[in-house]
Amino acid sequence: MTDTDPAAETSLRWFLKGVTKLVSVPAAVLVTAQIGFVALARDIGFSLPEILVITLSVWALPGQVVYVGALASGSGWIATMLAVSLSSMRFLPMLMSWVPVVRGERSTRLKLLGLSHFVAVTSWVFTMSEMPSTPRQVRLAYFAGFALALVVANLVAITVAYQLVGHVPAWVSAALLMLTPLYFLLALGGAGKVIDDYVAMGMGLLLGPALYAAGIGLDLLWTGIIGGTVAYAVGRVRRRST
Amino acid sequence: MIPAEDLSLAALGPYLTILLVAAVPTHVWRWLGVLFAGRLSEDSEIFRWIKSVATALVSGLIAQLIFFPKGALADVPLSFRLASVLLGIAAYLASRRNLAAGIVAAEAALVAAWFVG
User: Fold this and answer.
1) What tens digit of pLDDT does each residue of B90-101 get?
2) Looking at beta carbons, which residues of chain A come within 8 Å of B25?
3) pLDDT tens readout for residues A159-215
């Protein structure tokens, strides 16, 4: 089991196979959406190193956008922290469903916690679509290859985009700034499964601008709590009655 | 209340602020998800509520970015921004939920509106 560990060799092969999955539509869309985030954050006044650290350390586009948006609108740090955290709550059910799918005999909790850093919408969808046809003992290696390749591709794209964004015509920068809301809107709408999801989306789309315009402060927090609770209540009544 | 908070943020510096205010509040949910995996049901009432709150919050953010954009996007009239988004949704649905098709259609409409409008 020293120099020719067949299990390690297989893991490496699946890791590399994961890297090649970088050439796929979801990965391309994510990289494009990250470029939209660069346009937004640069516009607000964040430096390239700050944008790279935000992306790498948070690794969740909605949380990143909430963070730079909240700081830009002058929110205090407690309000910003709560808003970022609420926007990332989806990771709790996402990770709970990710672990049983990728876990193999050799997956320690430490490995799972380490790789959990890289679970976001794109890599979660990759997991759910690729893993059922992948041998269980190499699933974590396969995931790691894809996830780390995605990280590297995004950091490179951000660095290049940051240099270019300041020098493109206004219509290109308007189109880039539109990428983030578009990507979220379509991805979120496509991920909806039950009535709760659609009511929550509708309520959020209405309350977000309305509460912002009303100028009451903490508008995103209230949008989430009010809209989400109403959606939950609607879904609950529906489930009870059927 | 805001000046005091600004002071403490400035004292932390940009990178520690990112870690404490953006990264940790995000990762807490990932860590809890790994620890709770297999122990709590995803169909439980608390998860349904959490998912709805998160969905509403992110949707609110999306709408704010469209209604109150920053930078060059603010130069495009609201009616054109909304029309471009609606066109994107239509293309997305017509292409059997193809993300790339929706994004390309909306962006093409926005760029066309920029030059025509």
Assistant:
1) 999 999 988 889
2) 63, 81-82, 84-85, 88
3) 999 998 888 888 988 998 898 889 889 888 887 778 999 999 999 999 999 999 998
Q: Determine the distance in angstroms separating the CA of B40 from the nearest CA of chain A, rounded to an integer.
A: 8
A133 and A231 inside one domain: no
Q: State which residue of chain A sits closest to B97, comparing Cα positions.
A: A190
**Residue B44 buriedness (CB in 10 A; 0-12 / 13-18 / 19+):** exposed
Residue A164 is assigned to a structural domain of this protein: yes
Partners of A32 on chain B (C-beta within 8 Å) are 103
Question: Does A150 share its domain with A201?
Answer: no
- A1 within a domain of the structure (yes/no): no
Task: Compute chain A's Rg from CA coordinates.
Answer: 20
Partner-chain contact A174 B50, CB within 8 Å: no
Same domain, A20 and A101: yes
Q: How many CB atoms lie within 10 A of CB A236?
A: 15
Q: Which residues lie closer than 8 Å to A89 by C-beta, 6 or more apart? A: B29, B50, B51, B53, B54
Report phi then psi at A39, rounded to 5.
-60, -45
Question: A28 with A140, same domain?
Answer: yes
Assigned token pair, A67: 């963070």
Are A34 and A124 part of one and the same domain?
yes
* SS3 state of residue A144: helix
Q: Which domain holds residue A223?
A: 192-242
Question: How many Cα atoms sit within 13 Å of B89 on the Cβ side?
Answer: 11
- In a shared domain, residues A14 and A86: yes
Please indicate whether, in this complex, the C-beta atoms of A231 and B55 are within 8 angstroms of each other. yes
